[in-house]
Amino acid sequence: MRSAATTAPCPTCPRGRYLHPTGFGTLGYSLPAAIGAKTAYPHRQVVALSGDGGLQFSVQELATAAQLRLPLPLVVFDNGGYGEIRDEMTARGDTPTGVDLPSVDLPALARAYGGHGTRADTPEALARALSLALTTPGPTVITVTEETPR
Description:
Elements: H1 4-7, H2 30-40, E1 48-51, H3 52-55, H4 61-68, E2 72-78, H5 83-92, H6 106-112, E3 116-119, H7 123-133, E4 139-145
Parallel strand pairs: 1-2, 2-4, 3-4
C-alpha cells in the first residue's frame, strides 16, 4: 500500500507536469515544447519559462502560438544574454566573451508577432500577469528583469 507521501501530487505526476531538457543544445526549448504541450492538452494550464538568450533561438514560434490563439504565458528571465554561460565563465576566472546580447524589447516583439507582452517587476505583478495570460488567447511574453552582477 502506498503512503500519502508517495501519492501526493508532484511536478511530474499525471495532474501536473514539468518538462525540462537535458544534455547539450537545449537553448530555445521552452516555447516550442509549451506549444506542443498546450496543443496536446488544450484544457491544461501551460506556462513556459525561458531566459532571454534562450528564447531568441526559437522566438519566431510566437507566430505559431499567436496563429493558434493558444493562451500561453511565457515568463522570460532577462539577464542581458546568456547568463548561465556568463556565470560559468566568471566562476572559472575567464573574461566573459560572446555572452552579452543587445537589449530586445521582448514584450513588443510578442505584440509584433500577434501576441501580448508585459513586464513584471514584483511577485504580485507576475501573479497578475500570469492569471491574465492563462485566459488570454495568444501567447503573452512576461519579462522579469534578473538582477545579476556584471
